[in-house]
Amino acid sequence: MQVSRAFDKTLKQYGISAKWLSEKSGVTQKMISNFRNDTQSIRTDSLDRLISALPPECKVYFATQMIEGLNLDDLIEGMDGVELSAVLAKIGDRLKSPSFGSSKNTEVMLFR
């Protein structure tokens, strides 16, 4: 699933407003709205701040939405059991981490 669509679906599912999220994350309401409506790309550091501001259950829901949109067969094709196990362990560790979504990464990669 597209990042902006999964994010919008998450906010709708939990009744989170752009105003509340803006106050918690420091990202402007306009940027949040534009990202949700897929009219503007977002930098990874801004997306990271948005995700960090979400309650834990919202983070899990968002991650689930992203995973559901992947074609896992194509993604894991060619991995052996050890490699796949390592990837799944990393994902699990990241989701369990209290800092999920709060990395200091300011890479300018854009998401749509």
Unreliable spans are 102-112
Distance between the termini: 11 Å
Helix content: 55-70%
**Proportion of strand residues:** under 5%
| Strand order in the sheet with the most strands | 1-2
Q: How many distinct helices?
A: 7
Structural class: mainly alpha
Biggest sheet descriptor: 2 strands, antiparallel
- Oligomeric assembly: single chain
Structure description:
The structure is a single chain. The protein is mainly alpha-helical. Helix content is 64%, strand content 4%. The protein has helices at 3-14, 18-25, 29-36, 44-53, 56-68, 72-76, 81-96; strands at residues 42-43, 110-111. The termini are close together. Residues 102-112 have low confidence and may be disordered.
Which features would summarize this protein structure in a list?
mainly alpha; elongated; disordered C terminus; 112 residues; 7 helices; two-stranded antiparallel sheet; 2 strands; 64% helix
How would you concisely characterize the structure shown here?
By secondary structure, the chain is mainly α.
List the helices and strands and how they pair.
Blueprint: H1 3-14, H2 18-25, H3 29-36, E1 42-43, H4 44-53, H5 56-68, H6 72-76, H7 81-96, E2 110-111
